[in-house]
Amino acid sequence: MFVHVLYDWGKEQGAHGEKPVIKNGPAMSWIVTNAFGNFLGAGIWGFFHTLPQVNIYTHGSQFTAAHGHLAFFGAYATILIGMMYMGIQKAYGLERLKATFNSKMAIFLITFGVLGMTVALTIAGYEQVLVERAELGGGWDAFFTAQALPWMKQAMGWRTVMGVVTLVGFVYLLLDLLTIAKKQQQN
Question: What parts of the chain have a pLDDT lower than 70?
Fold first, then answer.
């Protein structure tokens, strides 16, 4: 699906010197990110996490949170943001909506932040499954022992850092959504 979206995007950009067909750069960027995030979050992490032989250990662990963050981002958040940009273009009657610095920073920081959170939560989930559930049996003592181990602490620290990166990207997104139409009407 992701490869097909990139192929169609390139085809629509005007091969052989033709005029580009895509009239909303930010929306298309978010839609491409939707295909990528949906494939990874719902596809790869979802498939791996829900196999019964794996889910018996991972259910309710940080693996679940990793899958949830990336699947929601990839399947829902990205497409809704893309539709917001399409709505702005329609509401202001703009023929073309070009990407701005804020829209580029938003998509980069939010995507990088969510992917970073996913990796950090996956590492924390691995530590939970390996130590808390497989080695120590999954009781309360195992839970508190696992929470104090270095991998868990470092992974949760990185999850926080990547959450801040995502938040900064969200601020760029809000600024862009609130100002992009007026900036492009002036041009």
Answer: 1-21, 187
